Amino acid sequence: MNKKLFRWDFWTGVTILSVVVFGLFLIYPLFSLFISGFQDPATGSFTMENFAKFFRKKYYYQSLFNSMWVTTCVTILSIIIGTALAYFMTAFKVKGKATVEVFVIISMLSPPFIGAYSWVLLGGRSGIVTQFLSDLFRMEWPSIYGFSGILLVLTLKLYPFIYLYVSGALKNIDVSLIEAAESLGCSGIRKVATVIMPLVMPTVLAGALMVFMNALADFGTPMLIGEGFNVMPVLIYSEFISEVGGQANFAAAMATLMVILTTTIFLVQKYVVNKKSFTMSSLRPMQAKQLTGLINMVMHVGIYVLVFVSMIPQFTVMYTSFLKTKGQIFVPGFSLDSYITVFENMSVAITNTYIYSFIAILLIVFFGMLIAYITTRRKSWLTDVIDTLTMFPYIIPGSVLGITLLLAFNEDPLILSGTAMIIIVSLVIRRLPYTLRSSSAILYQISPSVEEASISLGASPLKTFFKITAVMMIPGVLSGAILSWITCINELSSSVILYTGGTKTMSVAIYTEVIRASYGTAAALSTILTLTTILALLLFFKVSGSKDISL
User: Cβ–Cβ contacts within 10 Å for residue 179, how many?
Assistant: First the structure.
């Protein structure tokens, strides 16, 4: 569509409002972050000391290397596991495929810190599995803490992203390409490596970026089980909440480095994908084949074991939530005491979670639909600016976003720190880009001729949007909004920095209970959060009329 001349009307107002909103709640906070990073904590004057301090001490810059190392390992493992699972699930018939996919999606949508907490119960120094293996083999068994634990938890959490991306790409491959390769003598592993993998590589790279950014930004997992293996999000959080010696400026400097790093990685990935991207039209999609014999059994066992291990955190928290507790330890027998404690003492956190996420998702849907419309149907230089701005929340870690909002809105003229609004703003800013992208994709599927016909019959452009276009968009937007809502209720990275006693959410409450070793109440809260996620997922399937989730 050719770019239209700038003109004053309702959509111009929406365009300007969008620029103001992104400017106020994204660009201004980022600017405040950068300014703070270059300020001397005592005098407020310009200095490079905060950055020099980071690179001068190994304790600090080692955390950056640790973050990159564990994130790279997680990404590689996720690509291997997710791509293999997607290929087997698409190319061959798997019994219980629908159930397997639901479990994979549940393991992806559940917050990773619940996985970390569950593995502490199982693989901690006094964990069930650790004690069993120690008693069985009469030797000290390694615990879940450190690099290996972070790698395990994040890989099991994030490989489903690769699975969903690659599954979608495999469904778009025309089987005639594979048949042509086979007719030329290319089969087996060689066919996968030389034909299928190059076709899905742009999608793999897109999924890899999603995994990399999520792993790099994760705060809860390394905070709970890192134990000496420092990573950047944990270090930034620790320095920021310190009340000694103006550590906020040093934390801002480290957060600035994180933003620069993630932006660079994002731009490199985007450049590579654009060079390799192409369009596939699947006239004859791949048909699942039936394997037989030992290969079929090995494939099924491998898939079932992988999914079972992925679901261990959910099974663990549900089971332990019904165990009796004495103080901070579990004792034999079952009880509802943990749930009673939760509803008596932590009902505010539960209520806050649902209220904040509900308000956030209403704002996300409303602004998402309007902004998607102006960036696809009303193109101008301003909408190009907005489209660029919407990419930033993809690459800003949650903990960094939390710090930027606190630095920006902790003093006049606009004080939001300590309020519910600042948490809602963080949820909207972090999740709005996903709804924007899905809304834009839906709009591209709606022919402009439908709107033109409405206008030709006398309806105004504004009335046409709300009566025709928006109505056609709603089913797809709502299904995407449900998935965004799930991520909102599970949000921890930014909320743990922004919350106060009265604005605590369930994810923050779970985190604080685990830190206090109150595992019973943590399990009860985790179960409530997990069941909410499952119910929301079932609602998504109902609303969308699909059994698949596309990213």
Answer: 11
Report how many helices (DSSP H) and strands (DSSP E) the chain contains, helices first: 27, 4
Other C-beta atoms lying within 10 Å of the C-beta of residue 108: 22
Enter the tokens of residue 151. Answer: 């790698």
Spatial contact of 227 and 102, defined as CB atoms under 8 Å apart = no
Give the β-pairing of 410-411 and 414-415: antiparallel
Structural domains in the chain, CATH included, are: 9-35+332-545 (1.10.3720.10), 48-320 (1.10.3720.10)
Nearest C-alpha neighbor of 162 from the set 94, 80, 226:
80
Answer for the pair 423, 61: CB distance below 8 angstroms, yes or no: no
- What is the mean predicted confidence (pLDDT) over 481-487? 81
Using CB atoms within 10 Å of the CB of residue 221, give its burial: 0 to 12 exposed, 13 to 18 middle, 19+ buried. buried
What 3-state class would DSSP assign to 90? helix
Q: What residues form DSSP beta bridges with 330?
A: 325
In terms of DSSP H, where are the helices of 41-146? 49-56, 58-91, 97-109, 112-123, 128-137
Distance, in Å, from the CA atom of 420 to the CA atom of 500, rounded to the nearest integer, reads 9
Interatomic CA distance for residues 527 and 318, integer angstroms:
5
The 3-state DSSP class for residue 289 equals strand
Give 112-155 pLDDT, tens digit per residue: 677 787 888 787 777 777 777 777 777 676 678 889 889 998 99
Residues contacting residue 164 through CB under 8 Å, at least 6 positions apart: 86, 105, 108, 207, 549, 550, 551
Its pTM stands at: 0.83
Residue found under tokens 């998504």: 540
Give the Cβ contact number of residue 423 at 10 Å: 30
What does the pLDDT average to over 216-239? 87
Q: What is the pLDDT of residues 374-400, one digit of tens each?
A: 888 888 778 888 887 887 887 788 888
CA distance 367 to 274: 28
d(CA 393, CA 67): 19
Pairing of strands 329-334, 414-415: unpaired
**What are 92's strand-pairing partners?**
289
Calpha distance 61→130 (Å, rounded): 33
Q: Is 332 helix (H, G, I), strand (E, B) or coil?
A: strand
- Give which of 265, 73, 102, 85 is closest to 166, Cα–Cα: 85
Pick from 161, 158, 197, 163: nearest CA to 70: 158
- Furthest-apart CA atoms within the chain: distance in Å: 83
How far apart CA 469 and CA 369 sit, in angstroms, is 10
Q: What spatial distance separates the first Cα and last Cα of the chain, rounded to whole Å?
A: 25
Q: CA-CA distance, 239 to 246, in Å (whole number)?
A: 9
Distance CA 495, CA 17 (A): 26
Poorest-confidence range of 168-177, 404-413, 432-441? 168-177
Q: What percentage of the chain has pLDDT greater than the value 90?
A: 18
